[in-house]
Design goal:
Structural class: mainly alpha
Shape: flat
Strand content: under 5%
Distance between the termini: 49 Å
Amino acid sequence: MSVRARFLASLPIVTAGVILVAGIVGQGGSGHHPVAGVLYGVGTSIAYAAFLLIMRSTSAGTPHVAGPLADATAGAAVVSLLIGLVVGA
């Protein structure tokens, strides 16, 4: 079984787990908008996957990824600070 086939085979199981954890089916869902929580989670997963792919491609020639990872962390901190100042949170 190739990686692609294993991934496709596991997708329904993962999706069912997300639905159960979110509380979309049955009682005991946390929060007022469980579907929105699932959508935010999927968006976060896509953004993190893109980050990992970008990090892999940009740091392919370097022996260590600590430098690019530190730059990404510092950039995220500065952007988060600026957004917090603008929004007031």
